[in-house]
Task: inverse folding
């Protein structure tokens, strides 16, 4: 039987080498291959490949390492900082504008981060004479764009079109999803705000957006804003749909949500979607409502169990029926094998919704 090589991960060069060493420590042979240059995007990185017969063992090794990383992250306290990934597109610019307005309400400062990538072809150059000018040219271009953005933000603040919030810029080499997650693991921002393309544009993406990759492993909550969405924090009330599957950390997610939203005039709809009606689910959802009412007596809230139909279809119906402004959803850590073949509801929402979504990771 032929033991084919299969791709276990796509990483930037440095991280791919670290992953190979980790796998080899467990007697799993791993190799690094370039992505097909004919179909690659700038920033696609390199492939880490293993023998098909080692797949289950390799997934277990990676899963164990991720659990150790998460244990270290959970021991840290979040800081009063909002991270805004920025790629100089209209949807990231929209997210940046919204981020400043939310930062004022949260009394937080802002870090704007940009990921750049040195293509794998540059690593093949044996001398630095060609590598360094390309690298410095790339970084110089980013710095020039950041100067332009800084000037624009300062002008908007001076004209009182944006609140006067402390902000800084960071640029880092690597795949965007890796750069964002690495920053969050080390610095624990209270919130990440990301802009995405409209639904009809996202449907053309084969692998999925960077945002969808981030929410699978980011330890900080991620506020996802489609490019044409307007998040108006001045309307009263702001209708929030909190979708729950009765995860054991649902109450913890509620408290984390309220840290972000407590200064807004919100109205919350606690909602559970199920394929078949179960009386016990309504009892549990009622319990969540009672908990919330006890701790936040001045915030209006309702609960509703939705039975039958596809979850995303029913969610879309409810957002229109209730005039929902923001959806809150809790996703949880999943086995890597399951993650590869069965996308989470949160990921599907990112790729198929034009409604702003806040995703919390259990």
Result:
């Amino acid at each position: 039987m032929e033991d084919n090589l299969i791709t276990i991960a796509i990483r930037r060069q440095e991280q791919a080498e670290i992953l190979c060493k980790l796998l080899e420590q467990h007697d799993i042979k791993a190799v690094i291959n370039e992505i097909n240059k004919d179909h690659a995007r700038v920033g696609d990185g390199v492939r880490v490949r293993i023998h098909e017969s080692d797949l289950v063992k390799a997934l277990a090794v990676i899963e164990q390492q991720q659990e150790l990383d998460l244990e270290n992250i959970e021991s840290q306290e979040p800081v009063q900082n909002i991270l805004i990934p920025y790629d100089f597109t209209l949807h990231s610019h929209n997210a940046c504008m919204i981020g400043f307005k939310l930062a004022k309400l949260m009394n937080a400062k802002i870090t704007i981060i940009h990921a750049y990538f040195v293509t794998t072809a540059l690593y093949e150059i044996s001398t630095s004479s060609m590598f360094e000018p390309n690298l410095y040219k790339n970084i110089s271009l980013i710095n020039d764009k950041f100067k332009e953005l800084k000037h624009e933000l300062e002008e908007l603040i001076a004209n009182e079109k944006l609140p006067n919030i402390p902000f800084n810029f960071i640029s880092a080499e690597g795949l965007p999803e890796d750069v964002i997650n690495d920053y969050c693991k080390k610095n624990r921002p209270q919130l990440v705000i990301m802009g995405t393309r409209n639904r009809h544009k996202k449907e053309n993406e084969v692998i999925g957006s960077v945002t969808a990759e981030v929410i699978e492993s980011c330890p900080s909550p991620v506020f996802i804003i489609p490019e044409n969405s307007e998040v108006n924090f001045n309307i009263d009330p702001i209708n929030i749909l909190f979708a729950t599957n009765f995860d054991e950390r649902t109450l913890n997610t509620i408290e984390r949500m309220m840290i972000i939203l407590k200064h807004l005039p919100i109205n919350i709809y606690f909602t559970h979607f199920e394929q078949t009606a179960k009386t016990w689910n309504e009892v549990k959802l009622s319990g969540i409502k009672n908990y919330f009412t006890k701790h936040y007596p001045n915030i209006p809230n309702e609960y509703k169990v939705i039975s039958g139909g596809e979850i995303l279809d029913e969610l879309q119906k409810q957002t229109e029926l209730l005039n929902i402004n923001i959806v809150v959803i809790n996703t949880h850590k999943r086995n890597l094998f399951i993650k590869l073949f069965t996308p989470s509801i949160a990921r599907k929402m990112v790729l198929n919704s034009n409604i702003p979504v806040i995703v919390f990771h259990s």
The chain has twelve helices and 13 strands. The first strand starts at residue 5 and ends at 11.
